[in-house]
Design goal:
The complex is a heterodimer. By secondary structure, chain A is an alpha/beta fold. Chain A is 59% helix and 9% strand. The radius of gyration of chain A is 42 Å and the shape is elongated. Chain B contains 8 helices and 12 strands. In chain B, helix 1 runs parallel beside helix 5, helix 3 packs parallel to helix 6 and helix 4 runs parallel beside helix 5. Classes of the chains: A alpha/beta, B alpha/beta. At the A-B interface, helix 14, strand 13, helix 15, helix 16 and helix 37 of A face helix 4, strand 6 and strand 12 of B.
Chain lengths: 1127, 281
């Protein structure tokens, strides 16, 4: 059992809390609310001394007078005397009803109490020669009370009271010490001497406090540094009303109705400024909350300047002089209708009649909602008496006026009501821009506060100030909070409860949600009626919905929702979140939503320390739903959302919880995909350990796969895939099988064994489809396309297969259109089918754009460059490849940087820019075990060395390239290596070897159906003067030295995360995805397999021939070429 | 702080100013022009990467080591000292991500430029006009080639001093590229003719720069859903004129990289002549 107020643990039979004194048998939590109150403590100074001086009876009578005086002052400002403790009085403001100015009321009371004590002291000194001294402490904060006003008093306790009491003890005699919270809640109009942070006994941490020196009316004048924005329509309304009054010569009452802070006063000020001097003779008054001055105070303020003016011209004994004399004894004296309402009314009417004899007149009554019935009645009568006089009575009021006086305004004679609504979004943005000293020109900066404020200028101003001071609008400004809390507090309990329930649902909610939350047995809450009331009060507004759909509403702004929610006790929040989660569960709503509400329920339950056996249950349920939602988001490749959900699930999970290893494994996967590999590794290591411990072999196998990918260890990755395959087979884990196959296919590709890769990928495809795993599917198909492009399958049938796959799986999958479209485009291009290639390229581009494909920055230009190189447009190829290289470097994608750099180097070599090419490839790090990349690089290097005159080295490199290429089953890679060898051979004077290599290249290109490659080989043959027989006399497809790279080796694109999501960290993703799928780096060299050995022998046969005489000529010509190329 | 007042600096410069041409002939003031070369984008910045050009982002600071920003050579901040404001070297950091986002655009357009940062926003993201004055005047004093300002103040009391600073920068070959306010309000310094002001166009084209025939905003560049550096090394998309200005800042760096001796007047003319709607593509 714990205290309902301060949550201290209590013995089971306790009736009161030992710490704060709250009754232990609390009312049902449903009846409790959190509210912000201001507590005032006032204690006598030196009362023991006094008791020594005075007779007990005298002392008693003095103290009774003192207490009565204090109690009356407290009551006059709307405070409640909570209790007397010794000589101290404790008063609370905002307990029975929240006012927007509770903190100010408390301070006004404090000042008043000391003043009253001064008067009392004058008498005491005279009668008893003693003085009473007092000191006061004031603090503002949240307390828990009952929602039922009749029962509220018994419950104030806890930290707020404690701080107020300690502040009072720290104050000097005659001083008022207030906390920073009270200070802030009061807003402007305070003069305070900072007392610095004070340490108070029994209060954790220092309290910022100040000494109250003076209290004046809060600042109501608009900020001079902020221009007036918008509102043209309302200014016209005012113009119109004024014209009507002046033209018709009749009185008119125009009421501007609008919520607090909407800018009514500012509107009138602006209108007066613009209308001057046409509109003048203004009498202005402001109604004040009950208990502050006479009931007609506002009228007195209006009339006073007019009366003074009239008095100057009135002759003694005239009617005007008599009327003024009468007003001076009542209305103008203390704001009361003395000697009678009739006389007062007549006198005011007379003064106004005299004044309007000269020109039309304007009277402004601000804050009319504070006015009480007598004032409104008198105003009504006055208007009757003023008929046929050109007087505009401008009343400004909040909508509450219509509660106290439903018939006010439009409908009455000579009356109109105009409702002032919020600023438009654009005007709000303009105003928000003026509210800050320095504006960043990003739309995000103002959007947030504009959205929260919903067009209310005061909210905008407060929120902008908070953002400027605190860097965000997380905490609500206290006066804004008080303003709304007061509005909510004025609602009936039923209405208030519904509003609070709605705040649990969110910014938007519908009647069904509210019925579900009402929960109590009996008829469902008459939410329709309540919602109409709340709409009328301007707290919620209906949303447009198709006819027949259940009525949906939303809070008018974010601030209102927050304040409504903050009024709920944490216990209650927990209950409501749980109840709502049950409703969502029954309604079959998304796991993320259910999980979030269960999570909130659990968090609030633990926050108030009410631990029961239900807590772990709640926690595990929240965990289950969040984990499922996270897995779903991951499946949709919505990585940022998946990260959020899984992170929260992991935070909820305790070791040993069911499902925790899976959550950790998926979290690791997401982190890895986001490129946060250090964190990923940490999480995955835990996942493996916990999965092993709980015998979750499938999860462990998945985690091991990711972990190996994380560590950039190809051998380990392959091993994990092999091990995983067995495990996944046993547990029928299709996703796991798809992944393992994909990894194994990747290692085949790395070794250049595309035939084997295609076979493995066939399995991966089946499993991806069975697992409905779109990302694996896209990556499988992309890998398949890559192997079809590079592998032995002839280009025409390879392209046909790609097209068939695309038609079957790509129709509604953008990712597939990208991953598969890339190799397909190249396959078309290398057959010289430029139109088909262009069509395919356009389709890939569209898919990339629709997918917001991050790596598009690399793959887009890479594809362009590849196609340009194939089509013999070297300049275009260079530009595109350079762009791709920049992008790849920016993404820090090592594999992509390598392939792109090599590709660019080949184009540069063809253009004769071998030095630039050398700069690109010489420092390129390629690990062993990547025969494809190695062959590519050795080939390029061989040509560079040959051109640089390092013949022996060049030849060795070229041969090495051929050997490596022949370990692969890729005709194009082999042919390219052969061309490199031919080139090198010709340069170093080995024409026979060169010729043989050309023959070999041609055979391979022909086998592949690589028509561009065949044509290039022929050209090179002619170029090097190595033609053995007259070749077919086809036209030249390209100028001789525009010989560009026929081989293209980029890694194909892999799937990126969800299209619509902003993508926070794509930089590492390209790398991560590739590592997971088919890493092309970092592997240890593998022994060549049997076919490789054979290939090597074949390669040897063709390349190791002795040079003969004609080679010399070839070398010279090649040298000439080079010289020309370099020019 | 080593700042002198703008008017003080103007006085110091006055001795070197030419007020009239009464004592010389037109032939005495030859200007090397590019009249034989038609100003095309290729001539203006083709092949340039902004190398050798010093660009300063006066903003919220720039995050250290962001992959989309790369090296930031200098990192300074306006800090309060003894009741005044001064500029001090600080560890690279960004208080709200705005400066890093802008810097990443500059880096994308002009990969070779030398980037500097002056943080004028406070720790919590809010900023004051006084800090803007201090930071901007420091940047002008350092004679950065291009200064990017994706912010403004609407307080009239700062406008005169800012105008003097902008004029100072204009004649000292420090180009201030300032984004226009997102809302239709008067604010400074983008409003001055001595800076290059930039607003957003709605096209999905980062290379598209347009001249506005109807100033005060003189140029338009991409400012909608621009891919920019996000917090902690991430990438995100942002909207606002804030992100249009850095495109022109980057472009200016490219042009200055290729033609280092240009005055601000000449640079602005080249931007005009190469604007897509002027050159007619």
């Amino acid at each position: 059992m714990s205290c309902p107020s301060c949550a201290t643990d209590l013995p089971p039979d306790a009736r009161f809390c030992a710490r704060c004194g709250t009754p232990a048998t609390a009312p049902t939590p449903a009846a409790e609310e959190r509210r912000v109150v201001t507590v005032l403590f006032c204690d006598l100074v030196g009362s023991t001394e006094l008791s020594g001086k005075l007779d007990v009876e005298v002392l008693r009578s003095i103290l009774l007078r003192y207490y009565e005086l204090m109690e009356r002052r407290i009551g006059a400002h709307g405070g409640v005397v909570e209790k007397f403790i010794g000589d101290a009085v404790m008063a609370v403001f905002g307990l029975t009803a929240t006012h927007e100015d509770d903190a100010r009321r408390a301070l006004e009371t404090a000042v008043d109490m000391l003043a009253a004590l001064g008067d009392l002291n004058t008498q005491l000194e005279r009668d008893h020669r003693v003085r009473l001294g007092a000191r006061i402490g004031v603090h503002t904060g949240e307390v828990v009370t009952t929602a039922d006003p009749a029962r509220r008093q018994a419950l104030v306790s806890g930290e707020v009271v404690n701080v107020a009491a300690r502040l009072e003890q720290a104050a000097g005699p005659g001083e008022i010490l207030l906390s920073a919270q009270t200070w802030r809640a009061c807003g402007s109009g305070l003069t305070v001497a900072e007392a610095g942070p004070v340490r108070l006994k029994g209060v954790a941490g220092p309290i910022e406090a100040g000494r109250l020196l003076g209290l004046s009316e809060p600042e109501r004048a608009p900020r001079s540094d902020v221009p007036f924005v918008g509102r043209e329509r309302y200014l016209s309304e005012l113009d119109l009303a004024w014209r009507r009054v002046t033209e018709e010569g009749d009185v008119h009452v125009l009421t501007l109705l609008g919520e607090a802070g909407i800018g009514k006063t500012r509107l009138v000020d602006e209108w007066l400024r613009r209308s001057a001097p046409a509109v003048e003779a203004v009498g202005a008054g402001r109604c004040r909350a009950a208990g502050t001055g006479g009931s007609l105070h506002a009228l007195a303020e209006c009339v006073a300047p007019l009366a003074e003016e009239a008095g100057r011209h009135a002759l003694d004994g005239s009617a005007t002089a008599a009327a003024l004399a009468l007003l001076r004894t009542g209305l103008l004296l203390d704001g009361t209708p003395a000697p009678s309402e009739d006389d007062t009314c007549a006198a005011v009417a007379h003064v106004l009649t005299v004044r309007t004899g000269e020109h039309p007149m304007l009277l402004v009554v601000d804050d009319l909602h504070w006015a009480d019935q007598p004032f409104l009645a008198l105003l009504d009568r006055l208007v009757e008496d003023l008929r046929r006089l050109p007087i505009l009575v401008l009343c400004l009021a909040r909508p509450e006026l219509m509660d106290s006086c439903p018939t006010w305004g439009t409908g009455r004679a000579n009356s109109t009501t105009v409702t002032v609504t919020g600023l438009s979004g654009a005007d709000s943005a303009v105003l928000a821009a003026h509210l800050v000293d320095l504006a960043l020109h990003t739309s995000a900066a103002t959007e947030q506060i504009v959205a929260q404020a919903d067009g209310n200028p005061l909210y905008l101003e407060q929120l902008a100030a908070t953002v400027e001071e605190a860097g965000g609008a997380e905490g609500l400004p206290p006066n804004l909070h008080a303003l709304l809390a007061a509005r909510i507090d004025r609602l009936d309990e039923t209405d208030r409860t519904v509003l609070r329930h709605a705040s649990v649902v969110g910014r938007e909610f519908d009647a069904e949600d509210l019925d579900a939350l009402a929960g109590e047995p009996g008829p469902p809450a008459a939410s329709g009626t309540v919602l109409r009331t709340l709409t009328r009060r301007g707290l919620v507004k209906p949303m447009r919905r198709p006819f027949g759909a259940s009525a949906a509403y939303c809070f008018v702004n974010g601030v209102t929702q927050r304040v409504a929610y903050e009024g709920l006790t944490k216990v209650r929040r927990g209950e409501l979140h749980e109840r709502y989660a049950e409703h969502l569960l029954r309604a079959g709503r998304p796991d993320a939503l259910i999980g979030t509400h269960l999570e909130q329920a659990y968090r609030y339950r633990s926050a108030v320390g009410r631990r029961t056996e239900r807590d772990p249950l709640l926690r595990r349920r929240a965990l289950r739903h969040l984990a499922r939602a996270g897995a779903g988001a991951l499946g949709r490749v919505d990585l940022p959302w998946a990260l959020t959900l899984l992170q929260r699930a992991a935070d909820l999970a305790d070791p040993g919880d069911q499902g925790r290893p899976e959550v950790l494994q998926r979290l690791g996967e997401v982190l890895l995909a986001l490129g946060r590999s250090t964190e990923a590794r940490e999480v995955l290591v835990r996942a493996v350990a916990e999965a092993d411990e709980h015998g979750a072999t499938g999860t462990a196998a998945h985690a091991r796969l990711h972990l190996a990918a994380c560590r950039h260890d190809d051998a380990a990755l392959e091993q994990a895939a092999v091990d995983g395959l067995a495990v996944f087979r046993v547990c029928g884990d299709e996703l796991g099988l798809a992944r393992s196959r994909l990894v194994l296919a990747g290692s085949c590709q790395r070794r250049g064994r595309h035939g084997e890769a295609v076979a493995a990928l066939g399995h991966a495809l089946t499993h991806s489809l069975a697992a409905a795993a779109d990302r694996e599917l896209a990556n499988t198909l992309g890998a398949m396309g890559l192997s079809l492009w590079h592998g032995p399958e002839p280009a025409p049938s390879a392209a046909a297969r790609c097209e068939a796959l695309l038609a079957t799986y790509g129709a509604d999958r953008l990712a597939v259109q990208v991953t598969l479209g890339f190799p397909l485009t190249v396959l078309h291009a290398l057959q010289g089918r430029s139109e088909r290639a262009a069509e395919s390229l356009a389709a890939v581009r569209r898919a990339m754009a629709a997918l917001a494909y991050g790596e598009g920055a690399v793959f887009g230009p890479l594809l362009d460059g590849t196609l340009a190189a194939l089509a013999g447009r070297p300049e275009q190829a260079q530009a595109a490849l350079r762009e791709a290289l920049e992008a790849a470097r920016a993404l820090r994608a090592g594999g992509l940087v390598r392939t792109t750099a090599l590709e660019l180097a080949r184009v540069q070599l063809a253009a004769g820019q071998w030095r630039q090419a050398a700069d690109l490839v010489e420092d390129l790090a390629v690990a062993d075990g990547h025969p494809v990349v190695q062959a590519n690089r050795y080939g390029v290097q061989a040509r560079i060395r040959a051109l640089g005159g390092e013949h022996a080295q060049a030849l060795a490199l070229a041969r090495r390239a051929v050997l490596l290429a022949h370990r692969t089953d890729s005709p194009a890679d082999q042919a390219t290596a052969c061309l490199d060898l031919a080139y090198t051979g010709a340069l170093v004077g080995r024409p026979l070897q060169a010729r043989a290599a050309l023959r070999a290249a041609r055979r391979r290109f022909e086998a592949k159906g690589h028509l561009v490659g065949v044509a290039r080989t022929r050209l090179l043959t002619e170029e090097l003067g190595l033609a053995e027989e007259p070749g077919p006399t086809g036209g030249r497809t390209a100028p001789p030295r525009a010989e560009a790279s026929p081989v293209v080796t980029p890694t194909p694109p892999v799937v990126s995360p969800a299209p619509s999501q902003p993508r926070p960290e794509p930089k590492g993703r390209a790398g991560a995805e590739r590592e997971k799928g088919r890493s092309d780096e970092g592997a240890t060299e593998r022994r060549p397999s049997a076919p490789d050995q054979a290939a090597r022998r074949r390669a040897g046969d063709e390349t190791e021939r002795r040079p003969s005489a004609p080679d010399q000529a070839a070398r010279r010509r090649a040298g000439d070429n080079t010289a020309r190329g370099e020019r | 702080m080593t700042t002198t007042t703008p008017s003080g600096r103007a006085a110091a410069r006055a001795a070197a100013l030419t007020w009239n041409l009464l004592d010389r002939r037109p032939a005495d003031i030859p200007v090397a022009t590019s009249e034989t070369v038609p100003v095309t984008p290729e001539w203006a910045y083709g092949g340039a990467d902004g190398a050798g050009v010093r660009v300063c982002v006066v903003d919220s600071g720039v995050e250290a080591g962001h992959p989309l920003v790369g090296e930031v050579v200098g990192s300074h901040a306006v800090v309060g000292r003894d009741g005044g404001l001064t500029v001090e070297e600080v560890a690279p950091a960004d208080t709200c991500g705005h400066g890093t986002a802008c810097a990443s655009i500059v880096r994308r357009v002009a990969p070779g430029c030398e980037l500097h940062s002056v943080r004028i926003l406070g720790e919590n993201g809010g900023g004051t006009g006084a800090a803007l004055l201090a930071g901007l005047s420091w940047a002008i004093e350092q004679r950065f080639d291009v200064i990017n300002l994706s912010l403004s103040t609407s307080r009239p009391q700062f406008s005169q001093v800012l105008r003097e600073m902008a004029d100072d920068a204009y004649f000292n070959r420090s180009v201030i590229v300032a984004s226009a306010h997102n809302s239709r309000i008067e604010s400074f310094p983008w409003r001055f003719s001595s800076v290059i002001s930039v607003g957003s166009h709605a096209e999905d084209d980062s290379d598209l720069v347009l001249y506005n025939p109807d100033p005060p905003v003189e140029f338009f560049a991409r400012g909608q859903a621009v891919q920019v550096a996000g917090p902690n090394g991430s990438t995100t998309r942002n909207t606002g004129n804030s992100f249009a200005a850095p495109h022109v800042t980057g472009l200016s760096a490219l042009i200055l990289g290729k033609h280092p001796r240009l005055t601000t007047f000449e640079l602005k003319t080249i931007l005009y002549l190469t604007a897509a709607n002027v050159r007619g593509v």
